[in-house]
Q: What sequence folds into this?
């Protein structure tokens, strides 16, 4: 359960990606568009399934992949999801995350990338047209 993970998510309005770290059940992470995650992961000893409760911080101006309009204010909402053992090990998982459905794929990555869970700056650049 503990480790560093990459996550890719998609909804009707687009795709996104991010990273999170779990240490002793505490989850922290960030999406490349500025969203942040903080919460707890609790394994079910009988099945290995993971119960995740987390706060999702959405900065003003961010469009969610579910298709919402960007909000004028920062928003933090608490979400709860149940995931298969090993976070699904890269298999697509369809989740209802208000305001809509999102398909996520989560895969364990090297702990060398743990710093990415604190956030990354993505600066779009025009393509090289030479």
A:
């Amino acid at each position: 359960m503990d480790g560093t993970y990459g996550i890719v998510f998609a909804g009707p309005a687009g795709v996104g990606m991010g990273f999170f770290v779990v240490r002793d059940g505490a989850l922290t992470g960030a999406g490349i568009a500025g969203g942040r995650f903080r919460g707890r992961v609790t394994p079910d000893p009988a099945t290995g399934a993971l119960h995740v409760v987390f706060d999702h911080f959405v900065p003003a101006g961010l469009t969610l992949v579910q298709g919402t309009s960007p909000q004028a204010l920062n928003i933090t909402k608490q979400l709860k999801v149940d995931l298969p053992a090993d976070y699904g090990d890269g298999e697509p998982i369809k989740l209802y995350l208000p305001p809509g459905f999102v398909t996520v794929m989560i895969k364990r990555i090297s702990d060398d990338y743990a710093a990415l869970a604190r956030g990354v700056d993505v600066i779009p650049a025009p393509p090289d047209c030479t």
Summary: The longest strand covers residues 14-23. Residues 3-111 form one domain. The CA atoms of residues 50 and 88 lie 10 Å apart. The chain has a mean pLDDT of 94.
